[in-house]
Amino acid sequence: MLVLLPPSETKHPGGDGAPLDLATLTAPELTPVREQLVGAVVDLAADVPAARAALGLSPAQDGEVARNAVLRTSPTMPAIERYTGVLYDALDVRSLTRAQRARAAGRLAVGSALFGLVGAEDAVPAYRLSAGSALPGLPTLRALWKPVLSDVLAGADELVVDLRSGAYADLAPVPGAVTVQVLSERPDGTRAVVSHFNKTHKGRLARLLATTTGEPDSVVRLRALLRRAGLHVEHHRGTELTLVVPAAAVTR
């Protein structure tokens, strides 16, 4: 099972790993595009106003531009620890046992505007580039990534659970991947799409999928696994699952 996670705009700073080595990242066939984008991001950082415009940053965020300027030489840490935010707080990889962490390493991967795809334990620096960024002189990120990243993801010989957000899923859709919609259910039975706390519940789901000893190979078996774990999961069509959470649990 391969679980695709979205990245986060913000990243944990620092790290104690060696500087970025693109050749060591998951899916080495993505290296040429990675090299092109890393070079473009580093070069762009030399022009701070242009970098702000391309990356959608304010002057108060110039530290993000400074990170990009040194991303070739700055320290790294495992990708699953680099990304921050609500989903990653709920995933909470630092609390996993050694056995769970090893299992997660083989199952979790993160969609990335800069690297295309990184495995959980791939060593990456802090950087700033989002799926919607437009780098001067280059095609759109979707145009760069879709031809090569789609082939990589299509080659997965296991069940793919795609938890990426829309912009990152659009970089390279995965036909046949399981997707998950999160709905809250009120006491009267009415339902609503969960917005912000969608990330919390997907983080919890990712933790479960990363650590389970089960190996589902279809959407039906995945639904059964999640139900055994106590989740209210529905399957109405195709490869889309619906995770239903009580309205009272939406903010927890």
Short description:
It is globular, with a radius of gyration of 18 Å. It is α/β, with parallel strands linked by helices and 252 residues long. The protein has two domains: 2-167, no CATH class; 178-249.
| Structural shape | globular
- Strands, total number: 10
Distance between the amino and carboxyl termini? 27 Å
How many domains? The number is: 2
Report the major sheet.
8 strands, mixed
Query: Which structural class should the secondary elements be placed in?
Result: alpha/beta
Helix content bin: 25-40%
Question: Would you identify the regions where 5 or more consecutive residues have pLDDT less than 50?
Answer: none
Residue-averaged pLDDT: 95
What does this structure look like?
The chain has 252 residues and is an alpha/beta fold. It folds into two domains: 2-167, no CATH class; 178-249. The protein is 37% helix and 17% strand. It has ten helices and ten strands. The strands form two sheets. Strands 1, 3, 4, 6, 7, 8, 9 and 10 form an eight-stranded mixed β-sheet that branches. Strands 2-5 form a two-stranded antiparallel ribbon. Helix 6 (98-107) packs across helix 9. The mean pLDDT is 95. InterPro entries: YaaA (IPR005583). Pfam families: H2O2_YaaD (PF03883). This is Peroxide stress protein YaaA. It comes from Modestobacter muralis.
Characteristic terms for this protein:
two-stranded antiparallel ribbon, 37% helix, alpha/beta, 252 residues, eight-stranded mixed beta sheet, 2 domains
